[in-house]
Amino acid sequence: MIIGDDWFTKTMLIKTLSRNEQVKSQLGTNTIDFGELLTSVLNELMQKEVPISSTPTFQSFVDNFPSNNLSFANEIQNTGILNNQFSTNELLRFQAISSEKINQMLDGKLRGMGDAFVSAGKKYNVNPALLTAIAQHETGNGSSAAAYVKNNVAGMMGKYGLKSYSSIEESIMDMARNLSKNYLGMGLTSISKIAGKYAPIGADNDPTGLNNHWVNGVSKYFGQLKA
């Protein structure tokens, strides 16, 4: 979801963030009761008349803060919480998942690699379910020649074609690094957007058209892990 200027979206986001310990740490205001503060502020703002034809902006939100809490409002604004810095689809960023659950889905060269997917996800802030889903699709769930011969489970390419790795764990870590830096970090925040760069349809190195199935395949495995 991309956060725009609509009042309802931002109001709901603030309420959600009031329960988020990470935001407390980011703002450095651990002693503030976010829930109580934001509830009182929102109640006050909701009592004010807002013309239906106008869309309140974040600046008007700051302007209407009680004077004794204005510094807090400015802190929120400075973090970028309500602007497009936080438009990334957090579903694809790191989320806790047990390695046991991942292992139940894996076979072939991927068997038992649950811990590796979780560790790589934590290190590079990528959802382990996404890493696993891509590896499953790219290797036919651990059955591909690339996985067995080159330990390459992500279809990662080098100067001379498919990269070779010393271990499956190394390949998983390299995939996580690449996704974090060159995809999620560049605003490609959905499986379909990632596919446009990771597995573009009509690519020269895809003569049989396998990339046509990349989105559906990865999405299927991802959905199984998220269920």
What is the number of helices?
A: 12
What CATH architecture of the largest domain do you see? Orthogonal Bundle
Which bin fits the share of residues in helices?
Answer: 40-55%
Instruction: Report on the biggest sheet.
Output: 2 strands, antiparallel
CATH topology of the largest domain: the name is Lysozyme
Number of strands: 2
Structural class: mainly alpha
The share of residues in extended strands comes to under 5%
Q: Tell me the radius of gyration.
A: 22 Å
Strand order of the largest sheet: 1-2
Distance between the termini: 20 Å
Mean pLDDT: 77
CATH class of the largest domain: Mainly Alpha
Tally of distinct domains: 2
Description:
The protein is an all-alpha fold. The protein has 2 domains: 7-86, no CATH class; 91-226, Orthogonal Bundle (Lysozyme). 52% of the residues lie in helices and 2% in strands. It has helices at 7-17, 21-27, 34-46, 58-63, 70-79, 99-103, 114-124, 128-139, 145-150, 168-182, 191-198, 214-226, and strands at 157-158, 161-162. The chain has a two-stranded antiparallel ribbon. Helix 8 crosses helix 12. The longest helix has 15 residues, at 168-182. The protein is globular, with a radius of gyration of 22 Å. The two termini are 20 Å apart. The model is unreliable at 1-5, 49-59 and 73-88 (pLDDT under 50).
Question: What is the gist of this entry?
Answer:
With 227 residues, this protein is mostly helical. The chain has helices spanning 7-17, 21-27, 34-46, 58-63, 70-79, 99-103, 114-124, 128-139, 145-150, 168-182, 191-198, 214-226, and strands spanning 157-158, 161-162. The protein has twelve helices and two strands; from the N terminus they run αααααααααββααα.
